[in-house]
Amino acid sequence: MTLYQDIADRTAALIADGVLRPGERLPSVRQACRRHGVSPVTVTQAYHLLESRGLIEARPKSGYFVRARLGHGLPEPAMSDPVGEATALQVSDFIFQILDSVRDPAIVPLGSSFPSPDLYPLDKLGRFLAGAGRKLAPLSTVTDLPPGNEELRRQIALRYLAQGAAVSPQEIVITSGALEGINLCLQALTRPGDLIAVESPTFYAGLQASERLGLKVVEIPSHPREGVSLDALAGALRRHPVKACLFMLNFSNPTGSRVPDENRRALVELLRRHQVPLIEDDVYAELYFGRDAPAATKALDADGLVLHVSSFSKCLAPGYRVGWVAAGRHAREVQRQKFSTSLATAVPLQVALAGYMKRGGFDAHLRSLRRQLAEQEAMLVAGIERHFPPGIRLARPDGGYFLWLELPPQADGLRLHQQALACGISIAPGPIFSATREFRNYLRLNFGHPAGARQDEALRTLGALIGQQLA
Q1: 333 is a domain residue
Q2: pLDDT tens digits for 404-416?
Q3: Sign (positive or negative) of CA dihedral 220, 223, 228, 234
């Protein structure tokens, strides 16, 4: 890394951590030279790099200032408005047609559901995995059957404790990724023909899992900043025999919404009164951009009704497919479902992750990852501002790695997907996030991959394609 890149990265970290706030003046070039012991050319290069990332701006005769958060001039999408009735699902074929388009590495992955593997300490994890393979005790093939490796469950319980939630390791069931965790929870709580509540829009994998199990869904309106509507949920619970709720409360996919603490407490109390379990898909909780982590829903769960599902795939180890469920009063049934479906999660992977977490370094990695994602979000928004036509609505997340955009009403996300794909660009069109294929003029974009000239050119092309639809 060059000197100017190092200075830029350290300054960007101060901006991401809130030490340098929007509107504050950066040290002058001369002051920065003295502080870092470098030449004016080096400082100027660093400031130009930060300017290109959309983090600072130059003001004539005044110097450089932290830029106000980009995208605030763009209005956010409104609360969703689904039909509100039980819906039988037929979404899998439709979703697979879309997902097949993002496998090609030559495609610019704005529609991908995955972050760049370059953001993760895979080499270091590989050394722990190699060590786990050499030292694996023969008895671990039995002792690490569900609920899973004892040390890994203890390390996960310690992270809950740091968030103010007392979760016993005995309540935690290790799974083959969060998606298996969601499936196990649904299997433990429902039977074919039952009804569950989901957000609108919602992550398509939950719809696919529900369809496979023969479930129906009722879609609950959600706001792109504050998440699920409690009033609408209360009405649905009165009208329908809801067996469980499947929600993302932290940096929801696709909208990026984060349920405020007060609403979170009210949600848990509402479900307690109705004795309806909450399956919380919480894979993005560690990817927050501010100083404070989201509130832990498990800390509010006095009745054991929250089945908290998470994974290492988004925060540490993509491709390892190791997740877990803190299943509350339903832990025993979830464990039985694990036994009867996949039997166990790969033991060496569990041992390697336990060793990495025990040795430390996880939190340092997370701080670096959060800063990188915050920078990449700013750069994607800057590109949207530069290249997209007027009339765009944009939901700004405080974490995760997705942007949710509402295009003008005459735009067609599915047609845009086909047009973009022909140009070597993937996007995620809005209808894949709805049981009834709503959100025709919406799309989700991924900022989990490093920005650069290739992404900027893709945004320029997307903006031109949208402009053609609006003409």
Answers
A1: yes
A2: 999 999 999 999 9
A3: negative
Residue 184 lies in a domain: yes
pLDDT over 60 at 78, yes or no: yes
Q: Do residues 232 and 350 share a domain? A: yes
Q: Do 127 and 33 reside in the same domain of the chain?
A: no
CA distances from 19 to 105, 377, 411, 431 (A): 37, 19, 40, 40
Mark whether 348 and 214 lie in a shared domain. Answer: yes
Q: Which residue type occupies 376? A: Q
Residues of the domain holding 299: 120-359
Task: Flag whether 205 is in a domain.
Answer: yes
> How far apart are alpha carbons 429 and 420 in whole angstroms?
11
For 127-181, how does the pLDDT look when each residue is reduced to its tens digit (9 = 90+)? 999 987 676 777 676 777 899 999 999 999 999 999 999 999 999 999 999 999 9
Is residue 71 over pLDDT 60?
no
How many structural domains compose the chain? 2
Whether residue 36 is found in the same domain as residue 138:
no
Question: What are 438's two structure tokens?
Answer: 């709503």
List pLDDT tens digits, range 360-380: 889 999 988 998 898 888 889
- H runs (alpha helix) in 327-452: 331-341, 347-359, 362-387, 413-422
Quote the CA–CA distance of 196 and 303 in Å, as a whole number.
20
- How far is 414 from 279, CA to CA, in rounded Å? 30
Residues 182 and 301 occupy one common structural domain: yes
3-state class (DSSP) for residue 365: helix
Taking the C-alpha atoms of residue 141 and residue 133, their distance in angstroms, rounded to an integer, is 12
Torsion angle of the four alpha carbons 155, 160, 166, 168, in this order, in degrees rounded to the nearest 10: -40
N-to-C CA span, the chain: 45
User: Which one is predicted more confidently, 290 or 410?
Assistant: 410
